[in-house]
Amino acid sequence: MIVTSFTFNAFAENTYVLHDETKTCIIVDPGCYDKSEQQTLVDFIKTEGLQVTQLVNTHCHIDHVLGNKFVADTYKVDLAIHKTDLPTLRAQAVFGPSYGFTKYEELLPAHYLQEGQVLQFGKTELQILFTPGHAPGHVVFYHEASQQLIAGDVLFHRSIGRTDLPGGNYQTLIQSIKTQLFPLPDSTKVYPGHGPTTTIGEEKKFNPFLR
């Protein structure tokens, strides 16, 4: 599985395009907001000759959903989220303008992701792990064959997701990390929703929130 990241919007959110040798791809957490960011995403997909087949959110905070409607309209794909995060998604129509995102367009999910489900595209299979705490319906996507994890805002390089937003809970987040992420191999590469990549092993050793 090949992971390509783009940093979009005022929150420096990491948007991910995942594809394999079949040139099939999925888009995770499109944060593209303005036309320049949208064009950057479109140009990459066109240049690589990719076919977008799915749109998914790890969770539904505003910085991770700004490009949902654009991606869905451009590539004729539906949105999938964890059902528990639907209230979070619905709230962004209110929160968006307060963060300066006055042009945010809501897109509701057509499908729901479930813990333990396998998300497949091309020849690639992703395990869906349920990791609430930062958001009530947060999920992450793990590719076992290449030991790569799309982690959303659960785990960062020597940090963790904030828990002061509606639906957040610190103890729940720590539990999610320790029970869902730390059992993964130490060599697992972590692609977070913000900031640089890290590994599970590095965070076990050096993350001050998890010692």
Question: Topology of this structure?
Answer:
Layout: E1 2-8, E2 13-19, E3 24-28, H1 35-48, E4 51-56, H2 62-65, H3 68-75, E5 79-82, H4 86-98, E6 111-113, E7 118-121, E8 124-130, E9 139-143, E10 148-152, E11 155-156, E12 159-160, H5 170-181, E13 189-192, E14 198-199, H6 200-206
Parallel strand pairs: 3-4, 4-5, 5-6, 10-13
Antiparallel strand pairs: 1-2, 2-3, 7-8, 8-9, 9-10, 11-12, 13-14
Describe what you observe in this structure.
The chain has 211 residues and is of the alpha/beta class. It has one domain (2-206): Metallo-beta-lactamase, Chain A (4-Layer Sandwich). The chain contains six helices and 14 strands. The protein has helices at 35-48, 62-65, 68-75, 86-98, 170-181, 200-206, and strands at residues 2-8, 13-19, 24-28, 51-56, 79-82, 111-113, 118-121, 124-130, 139-143, 148-152, 155-156, 159-160, 189-192, 198-199. The strands form three sheets. The protein has a six-stranded mixed sheet with strand order 1-2-3-4-5-6, covered by helices on one side. Strands 7-8-9-10-13-14 form a six-stranded mixed sheet. The mean pLDDT is 97.
